[in-house]
Amino acid sequence: MKKRRRILNFVLGLILWCFSLLIIIPLLMIVLNSVKDVPESAVMSLKLPTKFHFENFLVVLEDDKLLRSFMNSTLLCVGSCTITVFTSALASFVLVRDRSKSNRFLYILFLLGLVAPINYIATVKVLQVLHIINTYLGAILLYTAEYIPFTVFIYYGFIGSIPRNLDEAAMIDGSEGIKLFFQIIFPLLKPVTMTAVVINVLNCWNDFIVPLYFLNSSEKWGVIMRMYNYFGQFVSSWNLVCAVMIVAMLPIVILYVVGQKYLISGMTAGALKG
User: Fold this and answer.
1) Which CATH superfamily is domain 55-273 in?
2) pLDDT of 92-121, one tens digit each?
């Protein structure tokens, strides 16, 4: 029995390593080609460069449009993530503490947003009425509508594990309503909040659809749209294209490394305690 389990674990480990190579090899290719010259990068191989050209990164960073796209992506991520986290946490708290039929129905509607983006369609119509399509605010609201269902889902399970006795004790001490939530409940939600922040920022930073269809001005594009634009601008200079990819990935890699432990604990806690 133990021998069979060892063989199974070995096979599973081998399969996982094979799948990981599908990610590692292209990533390694991008990193190596970002520090090559034009002729070497045109081959797109895994060979080490004859000379490392780190000035490729300086070339792409000197572009004002790229720096502006970083600012745009940061604005969209911070704005949508802030609204999503606070509204989802408050909504989940109300839905958990008051399990009436109407609230259960509302929670089902939130879950439907995970399957079909019905809230997304309504938000687009609202943006048309308010004439805020092709604006930062419109894009932020679209991202918020897209990410709220999943964020409510993970908050709902976590908040359900917090005993009601804590609320009653806080109310005896004079904390009620919003004060109760932000002083007592919200600090306890750190793992799931970090999970929501990391996932929402990852999705927003890497999104291509919203800028493509709802931000017609190139001045408002995020870093992913700007990176796509570089494929046409530097079509004969793959070293610069790869350098742009590395620059675009770096903030997300840093965020994931910082929030990785919270990401895992937040997801598992929400699943096990809900």
Assistant:
1) MetI-like (1.10.3720.10)
2) 999 998 888 888 888 888 888 887 776 677
